[in-house]
């Protein structure tokens, strides 16, 4: 075997073991008995130890030096292996161990403190997490910006400065839209009880409509919906609130977007470095396209209204137009995960500025709550009423996920570009979606984005798909047009 | 850390990874999407590669040489690690790899050939499996009997000769009992349709009655019921036939017996070599005690009759006595897994003789079908009508599980001894079981057998529990008394 082949064979086993780790995560969130948590932590720890040993295996350096890629796909493989290996080797083993040990405990502390509204109790843990992530960022940046180095884990090639510039361009238009919309009359919401089994049945139908491949997946209930796995085993979860069916339906469509990306990657890339979604931002561009630009469109909600009437009877909404408005109701609120399309990115931008300042040492953990609350009042116009509605609401920072938040909005931005481009390519799309057929749109995304996996850099795959340079413009145009029309503003 | 501590820490991670492999097996049989099989095979292969590398890690030899056990528990740990390491190192790596590669394919060939009733198609694969297992047995036996070496994998300390002597002593009494019973009038069976959901609900109730710890387990459906996992995550499966509720109920009780053993082991032994059932025979002694000696007793079926009447109404059985007879109906048949208590061991004995002759080279694969059919006619009095009812019925040989079959009957023998001893210790047991309370019996088994895990050798743990030398006598006495009374013979 050549050095390239040896490296790829070694890497393939690592990828297979990483899939096993993902499967344990799925198990833990869906079917694991509650008394198994401590043993499971040891099982995952042992597997992570195996993965870390493989990722730092000294043979990789030799293989990388000698390997000759046979083609462009092989070059992409080597590029990703090289990047991952360089990243892993930059972080001292002792720091990596301390990060792993701290994060596995910090999430439990966060959950406990959030339930008690106890910011002071969480601060020592958060301080430790931030210190460790600052150290990791510094080790990775090697003199550069530590926050940029952390962002690079989730969105290769993106920097804090580029994100800040984009967000600064977005904020005024979003704030202006928000103010106009909240000044107008709010549409009616749905009323009634929507039984769990019927919601799940329609949710499965929606997954099928959006192209979910059931032969390589399944859907289960979980507290927080997620998609898990790559290649031939990509599972999703959803949740049910019997008075709010949109929670279930749009969680499902969102996760189908993530899963369709993984399922749509060229089968020849399975269990290789390029055999998974290329970045968090591009991943989110798929889930958000499916959920919002397609799933919450006037055309598709027209079909969904008919199906919901057939399944649930009368639920207080007179016609498809009122239903479209109900699906897209804009409502102020404290919680990011419950936010509508107008508010969502404002939540993300705020977290981005705060976490970037934390990592760069411009904001201290002790001052985070005041900074959060000041900023929330400035952007959202109301005061935070309690920590679980404020700085304790998200799990991310307790898990050390600094640099992750901005990829949510980046995903929305990319979704704006992609759907603008696919709409130009598919003139009859709305007519198809009115009949519950989104296959032209999902097929376009599969062909232009999903099948490539990690073959191109994140921004490149979006640019190639769209045929133009990605920017925030299409998303903002879409939001202003859509909500301007719904609210008559 | 001392050498002992280093070895135990290393071993603990290996045990944790072995639990992960078990969890993948559970996933595959219960929830895995059908299209995921090929990828899963790679995932399991990668994990097995990691486990094999750990089990042959050269540091183990050094640790074993230097390790000083601090106490008797530590000595038992070292004994099991030493045995496992010696066993693993005796098999050449190339042979181990060939065995793994062959078995992963052979099971599929067997399933395909069984569905086509195609013995000739299966023979080349079976020949390869037998050749490999002969070679493995020879490598392990180092001049001794290769079949004994294979038996030792499942039942340490047991030999083919000892099993043959026991089985020879059992056969005449079982054949005589079988002939008497089949000459008498057969009791009535249940009639009706028993809906799946109701069966599963009562099945969960039975699991609870037999002491299954739900906080560390769950029950799901699978084609072939099994118990999976050790320590704090021990899951079981069952199956449902809507016209035969006993299939579901007694499969569940059987698997609860296996699971209760794993759950009942001293919590301090978890993720160590002694933290799991000590042998297949002792494991089966628990499942068979739960299922047969307790679950099919006159006392317990009295309670079950009442519950089934409450749940299902009239199902053609007039009273508890008729129900007891229906549960214990003796029926001739080709299939081992459907056999009653009278026939079951005759099936096992036949397989034992055939597989021992195959491994010792006294029987060739080409002659197996004729040997099977001759022997079946001699022991069961009827001719095999087709291969899927004959030599193609069991998966074991295609998986290379030679030496496994006799542990089923050994488990029955041990169950006979254990339940004789526990009945002597618990005089009011039948009165309790008539009220659906088997806790005194399961508590006795947990205290005397289950909690020890691998602390003692298999036969020793049974001897210590019973207070007498285990033999086939109690099982035969029990069967003759029980079926003699039911059939009036």
From TrEMBL, chains A, B:
Name of the top EC class for this enzyme: hydrolase
Keyword Protease among UniProt keywords: yes
UniProt KW Nucleotide-binding keyword: no
Entry-linked CDD domains: M32_Taq
InterPro entries assigned to the protein according to its UniProt record, in alphabetical order: Peptidase_M32_Taq
Reaction(s) catalysed (UniProt annotation): Release of a C-terminal amino acid with broad specificity, except for -Pro
Keyword line: Carboxypeptidase, Hydrolase, Metal-binding, Metalloprotease, Protease
Domain of life of the source: Bacteria
Cleaved signal peptide residues: none
GO molecular function: carboxypeptidase activity
EC number: 3.4.17.19
Task of the protein: Broad specificity carboxypetidase that releases amino acids sequentially from the C-terminus, including neutral, aromatic, polar and basic residues.
Family: Belongs to the peptidase M32 family.
Name this protein carries in UniProt: Metal-dependent carboxypeptidase
